Amino acid sequence: MGFFRDAGLMLVQIFFSMVMLVFALRLLLPLTRVRFNNPLCQFIYKVTNPVVGPLSQLVPPVRQVSLATVLVLWLIALLQTALMFLLVGYPLRIGELLLTGTAVTIYFLLGIAFWGILFSAIASFFSPDRRNPAVEVLFGLTEPLLRPFRKWPPRLEHFDLSPLYASIVLRLTMLALTHLLGALRVFLPPL
Question: Which among 26, 95, 17 has a CA at the least distance from the CA of 61?
Fold first, then answer.
């Protein structure tokens, strides 16, 4: 039974991670300077609009943050957590479910930031075409995260250490979150 349970857990995490990625991008893209008519942005908006659009009427945004999208992300994380609790045989306690669902949402967003910074740092070595829709989204998502770290010493003339600093801060935050969860950390996505 161990293999099938582990395979089920893996498939649940993969499916929900893909769905959460689309909604996380819907949340994060308006906070960047990525062109709205970017084909990747248009795809994200078309896919998520049937859910986020009507919900935005009930839950209005605060500044540029779509609370409707945050709510959808959190609900997806709650559903994923509940399915994983059931697959593992863990009792569905509402407090633990809400706590873990919230932690999964935060952890997932931190993971997107970490991997985005890593990919943009690697891509910067190859001088990618900034007009490419995917490259534009990648650098648009990571630039606001890296900006505060560009002031940290040592500042080298042709080498930017801000991705290293930002990655360390993100990973330490993720580590702190796993320690806050205690035994429930096994339900966090493997990022």
Answer: 26
